Every structure is written in C-alpha cells, then in structure tokens.
Amino acid sequence: MKALVFSVLIAALSVTGCQQVPPNAGGAGGTAGGGYGTGGTGGSAGGGYDTGGYGTGGNGYGTGTGQYTPAELRNPSSILAQRVIYFDLDRSDIKPEYMNILNAHASLLTAYPNLRVRLEGHADERGSRGYNVALSERRGYSVLDYMQVKGTRSNQMEVIGYGEEVPAVFGHNEAAWSKNRRVEIKYAGE
C-alpha cells in the first residue's frame, strides 16, 4: 500500500511540479524608461523589469529618450516650469509636495547629462547674516542630495547660498518670509 501511495505522489509531482515555463516568453520590459513587461527582455535602456529579472543599464530613463525633454523647460504647463522649492522656518528638509517637481528635474538631468543646474538657496531676513547664508546653503544641498539620489550626477549641479541678500518678495511679515525661504533651480544658459 505504501508503495502505491508513493507512486501516486511521485506521478502527481511530475505532472504539476515540473512544468517548465519557457524563459523570455511574452512581452518586453521597458526599453526607455521604467517599463514593466510580463516576461520578456528586461529594460534595454533603463530600468525595465520582467519576470526574468531586472533589465540593466539605468534608472528608468534612457539617454535622451526619457520622459521629459529640455523643450519642456519653456512650457509653462509642464511640471518642469516649477523651479522653486519652499521651506519652513529654520528648516532645510524637503517637503513632500515638492518631491514630484524634483523627481521631474532629476529625470530630465539624468536623461540629458549635458544639462547643468545651479541650485540657489535663500533665507528670509530673520537671523544673522552668517546663519542665513549657512541655512540657504543647507537648503541647496538638500535639493542636490535628493536629486543625486534620484540619479542626477553631482557634476551637473552646483549650490550657491545667498542667505537673505536676494529676497523674492519685500516685506516684513510671514507672507513675504515664506516666499523668501526657497531654493531656485536655474538651468545653465537660461
């Protein structure tokens, strides 16, 4: 009886457990930007994923063929037209509402390694001059660090801390101060 049960078990395993799925059958993963396939070749130019494994060669954005183009920098309805990141008082951490903007700029810079930006940090008028320069630099480096994590090369970015010297809005109230606590993303050549 034991031999019969064992034989049936082996037969069942051979039918269900040994089926082979041909590798790379099905669609293709992303070829130029974060695509997802159902079983085919991984991303050839950036970050595709398929059931056979991750593609090689990038971060989801192909060279020059990513989601954004430099022409969109001049399009006022593009997310790339948003180039000011605001901060809370005495803070240099990036608020969640600005991450999509920075992701878009990082995506563009990653796809176009010849582009360069200057990250101009600013502070409101409160605090000493030295404190405000240091704070504005910290804000600039927060943006740089975030974009670097997203794939932007460090040689594409530079940081300048202006402190309180270049206010966006003149005034001595919270409405003016909130507009002056910022980092502006400036592209070279603009």
From TrEMBL:
Transmembrane segments: none annotated. PROSITE patterns: OMPA_2, PROKAR_LIPOPROTEIN. It is a lipid-anchor. The lineage of its organism: Bacteria, Pseudomonadati, Pseudomonadota, Gammaproteobacteria, Thiotrichales. InterPro entries: Bact_OuterMem_StrucFunc, OMP_bac, OmpA-like, OmpA-like_sf, Pal, Pal_lipo_C. It is found in: Cell outer membrane. Belongs to the Pal lipoprotein family. It comes from the Bacteria. Residues 1-17 form the signal peptide. The Tol-Pal system is composed of five core proteins: the inner membrane proteins TolA, TolQ and TolR, the periplasmic protein TolB and the outer membrane protein Pal. They form a network linking the inner and outer membranes and the peptidoglycan layer. Residues 74-190 form the OmpA-like domain. One of its GO terms (cellular component) is cell outer membrane. GO terms for biological process: cell division. This is Peptidoglycan-associated lipoprotein. Part of the Tol-Pal system, which plays a role in outer membrane invagination during cell division and is important for maintaining outer membrane integrity. Keywords: Cell cycle, Cell division, Cell outer membrane, Lipoprotein, Membrane, Palmitate, Signal.
